[in-house]
Amino acid sequence: MKSNIYFSDDTTTIYHGDCFDVLNNEIKESTVDVIFADPPYFLSSGGISNSGGKMVKVDKGDWDVPTTFEEKHEFNRKWIKLCKRLLKDNGTIWISGTLHNIYSIGVALEQEGFKILNNITWQKTNPPPNLGCRNFTHSTETILWARKDDKKARHYFNYELMKELNDGKQMKDVWTGSLTPQKEKEFGKHPTQKPLYVIERLLRASTQPGDVVLDPFMGSGTTGVACKKLDLNFIGIEKESDYADFAKTRIINMLIQEELF
Ligand code: SAM
To answer: φ, ψ for residue 34 (rounded to 5)?
Structure first.
């Protein structure tokens, strides 16, 4: 698949294409301050789930179909390695996942020369019920935060702001809140759209105005929307054209709301 720039303005670039190609060929080395990645979970195995009260097959798309453990791990090592080349020495990377991929990602991060700073648990207040009734209801996702494993690396953490947002107490690594609300889905649907408050919090914790943020698996563009709210430059990559389009619409709408467009 040939990658191309789908949308760009002074502070935003959206690529429609395969992130392996774009990360390798389109973005300059050591130019990115923070990466947020929400890669495939590899969980669409045809099992049963719940959507809007109905029993449905788990099918988030071809990009999410499980492979062998070795293939999944090789995939994770490969994109993490490409991201590391683009990240500045003091930069950090956030990666979200579920039990299906997060253990591979944790190992891949260490294998590719990262040091994990935090293991954030995003606890969902309104998870879908477990229809199989053979194990506990899945109600959390994990977000790993890491920096390059180099003693000289000085990552940025806005400790004071996080404390302020938590009523003057140190912010903990369990973040509780609802699934993505309907009002964030007004321009389209994506099966794994993250809520804005989660991405906003992690960007507020780790970026300064004007920083460059990269999302190699952009989906509906939640990271881009958060970047526009926070005066950050954004580079997003998405291989499905419908999602690239959805992301562009959401980002432009946020620029209009902020009167930046
Ligand atoms: N965080 C996103 C959001 O809030 O909408 C959801 C990301 S979703 C888990 C992963 C996305 O990565 C999907 O939209 C999928 O189409 C895309 N994707 C999968 N493999 C890709 C690849 N090799 N290059 C670029 N995008 C890819």
So the answer is: -140, 140
Long-range contacts of 68-72 (CB under 8 A, 24+ apart): 69/104, 72/42, 72/101, 72/104
Query: Among 54-63, 93-102, 107-116, 219-228, where is mean pLDDT lowest?
Result: 54-63
Q: Answer whether CATH 3.60.110.10 is correct for domain 5-260.
A: no
Higher pLDDT, 185 or 3: 185
Q: Read off the tokens for 153.
A: 């690396």
Q: How far is the centre of ligand 1, averaged over its atoms, from the C-alpha of 91 (Å)?
A: 22
d(CA 171, CA 107): 26
Q: How confident is the model at residue 68 (pLDDT cuts 50, 70, 90)?
A: confident
Helix (H, G, I), strand (E, B) or coil at 147: strand
Whether the CB of 238 sits within 6 Å of ligand 1: yes
First to last CA, the chain: 31
Place of tokens 């788990």: 58
Q: How far apart are CA 17 and CA 240, in angstroms?
A: 8
What are the sequence ranges of the domains in the chain? 5-260
* Residues ≥6 apart with Cβ < 8 Å to 181: 195
Ligand 1 pocket check for 91: Cβ under 6 Å:
no
Following DSSP, what letter does each residue of 36-105 receive, concatenated?
EE-------SS-EEEETTEEEE----GGG----HHHHHHHHHHHHHHHHHHEEEEEEEEEEE-TTTHHHH
CA of 176 to the centre of ligand 1 (A): 24
Tell me if 247 CB under 6 Å of ligand 1. Answer: no
The mean pLDDT of 103-117, rounded to a whole number, is 98
